[in-house]
Amino acid sequence: MKEKVEQYLQEIKSFAANTQDEIENFRLKYLSKKGIVQVMFAEMRNVAPEARKEMGQLLNSLKNEAQNKFDELKEAASGTGTEAGKKVDLTLPTDFANLGSRHPLSIVRNEIASIFSRIGFKVNEGPEIEDDWHNFTALNFAAEHPARDMQDTFFIEKNPDILLRTHTSSVQVRVMQKEKPPIRAIFPGRVFRNEAISARAHCIFHQVEGLYIDENVSFADLKQTLYYFATEFFGADTQIRLRPSYFPFTEPSAEMDVSCFICGGEGCKICKNTGWVEILGCGMVDPNVLEFCGIDPVKYTGFAFGMGIERIAMLKYQINDIRLFFENDVRFLKQFESTL
Ligand code: PHE
């Protein structure tokens, strides 16, 4: 019997298993109720009393060996053990999950919102599907007025006209109808124009509108606000210039250029050698518009401005094709990182 037990011990020591099945078979063979360990303990009955002590010790070590081997095999198979190359090196660098990045248009929009929030402008939004009144009539576009053709419109329904808003100025109307002055807010959003798609133009793009209505708001306030924005966004050395322009809903109206932040005004490809780049339209809110929206034009004045987010993002990141913003090619998108 002693020899038999010693032979089992040898077997256990040299046993190796590669699969769960083999490990289970090992358990059945040695450690189960009818397994070798139990059978050998049962045979103790036949051992002479003087040899029992030694035999008992031997069987205990058989039992321990079998149990240890089984535990070891199990641990190795679960991948956390120290067996045969399965060791895990906890000092290796991990693979970080790919989190993606913010869209460049979101980065620019958030930055614009953050700059204006510092001087007390809150953020409002309005619907993308509008009626003619909010998009045109209340903004002083007379019926049949050629100014309506400045913005080629996608109509959804005719009579009454329902359309995709052509500019965020429609949100001006909604906010003025709802709120009493002082009003100081920006309205970012998506706008739509029936234009041929090219590297420079798209039928879908984004604008940020700004509106400030209160007593005694002057053109000087408009100029200073826009100057503040330009220096915050493009850098402290930025110059601005206002050129007279026309919008039905502002009087007087202007377009604003900033000194080219690429060449500093020397002349380059971005500013087409002029030293200036146009970034927005603006003006004093036309008294007719205030009146249409239920605000007393004698007591209150205000200014408004509107800028294209794509245009500003293209300037900021020197992107030469507006279509890239809408294709969602990850190779393009992952180049823009921001904490905003
Ligand atoms: N809505 C004008 C546009 O889309 C921009 C603008 C906004 C001009 C506010 C003046 C005041 O071109």
Describe this protein's structure.
With 340 residues, the chain is an alpha+beta fold. It folds into two domains: 2-78; 104-339, Bira Bifunctional Protein, Domain 2 (BirA Bifunctional Protein, domain 2, 2-Layer Sandwich). Helix content is 36%, strand content 20%. It has helices at 2-14, 20-30, 36-42, 52-77, 104-117, 132-135, 169-178, 219-234, 287-292, 309-317, 324-327, 330-333, and strands at residues 122-123, 129-131, 155-157, 162-164, 183-192, 204-214, 240-247, 250-259, 276-285, 301-308. It has a seven-stranded mixed β-sheet with strand order 1-5-6-10-9-8-7, with helices on both faces. Strands 2-4-3 form a three-stranded antiparallel β-sheet. It is rod-shaped. The termini are far apart. Phenylalanine (PHE) binds at residues 167, 169, 209, 247, 250, 281-283, 304-306.
Strand order within the widest beta sheet: 1-5-6-10-9-8-7
Q: Mind telling me the CATH superfamily name of the largest domain?
A: Bira Bifunctional Protein, Domain 2
> What portion of the residues fall into strands of 2 or more residues?
15-25%
Taking pLDDT < 50 over at least 5 consecutive residues as the criterion, the unreliable ranges are: none
Q: How many β-strands, per DSSP?
A: 10
CATH topology (fold) name of the largest domain = BirA Bifunctional Protein, domain 2
Elements, N to C (H/E): HHHHHEEHEEHEEHEEEHEHHH
